[in-house]
């Protein structure tokens, strides 16, 4: 199976490096993505929004003869959902890594601080404690060294969705910061951020207890969870 790996904010294709070998050992073909504007600190991000990121992944999907699996971490999950809306018949499954689908009109995160039209990686004390579980000092140093500012409009643009066939694409949610049982409590309570997820017809849950960046803190377990979701 061809797997398109979509990173979250501040990260490029190399952020999947410790996960890729586990997936390829299972016979999968991996295609980690560096999204527009994330290729270098010096890249021009001024005209890049959420649509440009979705368009970039749609072009990748269109290059395959068979349906593909999308794996989206964090904000990359919203991009995966946008791609499923555009190509619902070309996506075999979406695996959301500590993320989930946005509803039409929602933004990924419009609360992050914008500096000169882009969003630098915040200081660690600006994250919740749950985000940082298992992210030790060495991992934090490596993360900050590799981090690239996020195009501001990717975080603030409302997603635009049109095709309800996106709800037919099966998904797996890999829950990290809080267990899937808590997520299902939010679903039962009709929490606004779960309403799009509630519309998806086939949803599987996998618990992988760690912080928000399991590709760094538990890459082996993440690779195994993704491979299991695809099986």
UniProtKB/TrEMBL annotation:
<protein>
    <submittedName>
        <fullName>Esterase</fullName>
    </submittedName>
</protein>
<dbReference type="GO" id="GO:0003824">
    <property type="term" value="F:catalytic activity"/>
</dbReference>
<dbReference type="InterPro" id="IPR052897">
    <property type="entry name" value="Sec-Metab_Biosynth_Hydrolase"/>
</dbReference>
<dbReference type="Pfam" id="PF12697">
    <property type="entry name" value="Abhydrolase_6"/>
</dbReference>
<dbReference type="InterPro" id="IPR000073">
    <property type="entry name" value="AB_hydrolase_1"/>
</dbReference>
<dbReference type="InterPro" id="IPR029058">
    <property type="entry name" value="AB_hydrolase_fold"/>
</dbReference>
<feature type="domain" description="AB hydrolase-1">
    <location>
        <begin position="3"/>
        <end position="221"/>
    </location>
</feature>
């Amino acid at each position: 199976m061809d797997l398109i790996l979509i990173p979250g904010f501040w990260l490029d294709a190399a952020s999947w490096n410790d996960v890729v070998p586990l997936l390829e050992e299972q016979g999968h073909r991996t295609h980690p993505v560096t999204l527009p504007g994330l290729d270098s600190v010096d890249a021009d991000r001024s005209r890049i929004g959420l649509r440009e990121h979705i368009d970039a992944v749609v072009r990748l999907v269109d290059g395959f003869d068979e349906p593909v699996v999308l794996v989206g971490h964090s904000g990359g999950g919203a991009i995966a959902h946008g791609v499923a809306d555009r190509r619902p018949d070309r996506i075999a499954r979406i695996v959301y890594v500590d993320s989930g689908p946005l509803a039409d009109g929602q933004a990924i995160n419009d609360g992050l601080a914008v500096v000169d039209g882009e969003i630098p990686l915040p200081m660690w004390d600006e994250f919740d404690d749950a985000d940082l579980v298992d992210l030790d000092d060495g991992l934090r140093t490596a993360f900050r060294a590799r981090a690239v500012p996020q195009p501001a409009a990717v975080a603030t643009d409302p997603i635009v969705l049109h095709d309800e066939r996106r709800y037919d694409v099966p998904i797996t949610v890999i829950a990290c910061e809080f267990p899937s049982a808590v997520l299902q409590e939010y679903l039962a309570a009709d929490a606004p951020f779960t309403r799009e997820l509630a519309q998806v017809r086939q949803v599987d849950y996998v618990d992988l207890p760690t912080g928000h960046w399991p590709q760094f803190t538990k890459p082996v377990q993440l690779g195994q969870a993704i491979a299991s979701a695809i099986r």
